[in-house]
Amino acid sequence: MLLEVKGLCVNYGRIEAIRDISFTVDQGEIVTLIGANGAGKTTTMKTISGLRPVRAGTVTFDGKDITDLPSYERPVLGISQSPEGRGCFVGMTVMENLEMGTYARPDRKSKAVKDDLERVFELFPRLKERVNQAAGSMSGGEQQMLAMGRALMAKPKLLLLDEPSMGLAPKLIQQIFDIVTEINSQGTTVLLVEQNAAQALKRSHRAYILETGEIVREGTGKELANDPSVKAAYLGGDV
Amino acid sequence: MTTTTNVTQKKKDRPNLNERIADLPLPIKVVLWILFALFLFALPLLNIPFITTPDSDFGGVLFTVSTYVLVALGLNIVVGYAGLLDLGYVGFYAVGAYTVGVLSSQHGSLPWLWCVPVAIAVAMVSGILLGAPTLRVRGDYLAIVTLGFGEIVRLTLVNSQWLGGAQGISNIPRPPGIELFEVPSIDWSTGVPVVDLGTTTTFLKFGISDFIPYYWLALVVIALVLVFDILVKNSRVGRAWEATREDEDAAELMGVPTFRFKLLAFALGAAIGGLSGALFAGKSGFINPQSFELLLSILFLAAVVVGGQGNRWGVILGAIVVSYFPERFREFADFRVLVFGLALMLLAIFRPQGLLPPRRTLRAKRADARQHVLEEGEAGA
């Protein structure tokens, strides 16, 4: 088990954003959290990457309790996140953004970084074309690619993707999901948060459904995709 | 998608001044730098018409300008690099000056030179003490807290007899000097430059009437701070500041301990402010709380914003504009402040990014323009 979340509770002030949720992510999996707006998906992501303090419960990564570990120490362990809304450094160039991805790597000056850069450029050829362009001047899809590429430059064991398809054109969404599958097949475990449930369920090994801060369903991607109630609530199918 | 590639592939043909200088061969660059440095050192002796201030001692004005430059460089680390709005920067300036005052005159008799490192250290510690609890708040709140800090420092100075109260501290020793030789100046009164052997500056005597040696000292300090600034900005620290300023959460996700880096920016900025204050105390020989009014914080910030926050050469230019022009046009009496205010407003309207904005700001601006062109293109299609 790569990641284990147990009894997690997170508050924003007095408002409970997440109530007692537990889930696991195994080595090599794509696991998806789906749910409506405000269900607590992004909060869960931010808690795993350390941006939100935990009120109760534990987060264990690679056998190590990281519940109270500061966020900036987590990339060193192998957790890397592409945040919601992309969070590219808009004034920096594409290259500088990718270099920021290696900030926490102890081997950032070695040849391994070059290989990883090549790998990112293979996944996202568009980034290679734009290497000296300011991140802020790129389209939403390109910025999403950059955010994912930057997260990969940290050479994570677990890649957290928060709504990678948000605000993108349908064709581009397809492409992004293809790349997620490709990243996973190259050996990186992926935890995905999505509103685009149909695509996400099709691609993931397992999924959890979040509703108002609690996990209400779990199963394999296929199970949930074919479940009538899930279809009705999240996939826009008829009841 | 094809249109977007076309637009980006269009390169600028004409290199700007910066690029042309950067393209010069190294020996020429070194010679140019040396000539420029010599010019700066000779500036108060040359008495160039129009540049020289007619109504106040030019050496003194140049020293004041240099302290502003130094302060602007320090504040630029905080505001420009780390993106933290600091409205109480004068507090650190005061801490530096008063540390020298207390150690050398009020409660001790250390020589000026010994006091300077202590002043830097004390200012740095005060920066950390202020930053540690307050840097967790963001944006506007930080501005208010720092504003309060500047005022608290000033009020403490006014009300503490131990620190000299409203009268301040006098008899602060001057920097140590050696009198080696006399440097003549240039006289333009006949319309042509003539070497004036009657008006000379002693190298290197820190006296009470000739401020030129203080200006020279300040120039050397500025050069050292600049070297330090360049080294830090180009290191991992500089990159971490940039990331923190642009997106704090994303920076944390990349493994940047943002709080520590903000604190570091605060401490380094404070140290340079303190150094500046120590220079000021050494030149004046006398300090009182009135020298550290809130207005000064605003002027320091204006220097950074006018010049182009984040670009060290920009903020130097901004500091010169903010401190030199009011002195140069002293003959217009109170009107100069009015004109100065108007000029600042015009700058804010027509050049909000500053006189010399950093590359990334230009980059972001170009990106905006490009986005605009694209949207218009889509609307037309």
TrEMBL record, chain A:
Signal peptide boundaries: none
GO molecular function: ATP binding; ATP hydrolysis activity; branched-chain amino acid transmembrane transporter activity
Keywords in alphabetical order: Amino-acid transport, ATP-binding, Nucleotide-binding, Transport
Claim: Magnesium is one of the keywords in the record: no
GO biological process, one term: L-amino acid transport
Alphabetical list of PROSITE patterns matching this protein: ABC_TRANSPORTER_1, ABC_TRANSPORTER_2
Domain ABC transporter as annotated: residue spans: 3-237
InterPro entries (alphabetical): AAA+_ATPase, ABC_branched_ATPase_LivF/BraG, ABC_transporter-like_ATP-bd, ABC_transporter-like_CS, BCAA_Transport_ATP-bd_LivF, P-loop_NTPase
Pfam families in the record: ABC_tran (PF00005)
Sequence similarity: Belongs to the ABC transporter superfamily.
Protein name: Amino acid/amide ABC transporter ATP-binding protein 2 (HAAT family)
From TrEMBL, chain B:
Mode of membrane association: Multi-pass membrane protein
Any one Gene Ontology molecular-function term assigned to this protein's record: branched-chain amino acid transmembrane transporter activity
CDD domains xref list: TM_PBP1_LivM_like
One GO cellular component term: plasma membrane
Spans traversing the lipid bilayer: 30-52, 58-80, 87-105, 111-132, 214-232, 263-282, 294-325, 337-356
InterPro entries the record matches: ABC_transp_permease, LivM-like
Keywords of the record: Cell membrane, Membrane, Transmembrane, Transmembrane helix
Highest taxon listed in the record's lineage: Bacteria
UniProt cross-references to Pfam families, sorted A to Z: BPD_transp_2
Cellular localization per UniProt: Cell membrane
Main location: membrane
Record's protein name: Amino acid/amide ABC transporter membrane protein 2 (HAAT family)
Native species: Humibacillus xanthopallidus
Taxon lineage: Bacteria, Bacillati, Actinomycetota, Actinomycetes, Micrococcales
